[in-house]
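Hey, quick one: can you model this chain's 3D structure?
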Amino acid sequence: MKILYKIDKENKTVVAYFEGGKDAWVDAIIKEAFKLERATNDVIRFDLQYIGEQTEKVLNDMNLFGKAKCHPEDTFNPDVGAKMASRRLLDKLAKVKARVFGKLQVKVNNLNWELIK
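Sure thing. Here's the predicted structure for all 117 residues.
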């Protein structure tokens, strides 16, 4: 995933976002599911439609960017701002992954509960 930046020198702000917008976020989560499947030699298979739907739901509640704003009295450095903004963007991506895979874990637990009833 490619990270793009908007640099606003006047307001001393840098915004980081993924090229491709919301679709890039969904693709990243689905690619993570594929990695997990491969790591288990395809013993575990995920419902990718469910993962995509859950990702969309989670993303609807979020700003899909990372932002860094310089204090008005500090000297603005776009490189430092870009690093901070991209870190915040990647932190959001990690939180989305955790929420989506957490929902998937609940679904798996519910299915297991049905099997042992």
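One thing worth noting: Residues 31 and 51 are 11 Å apart (CA to CA).
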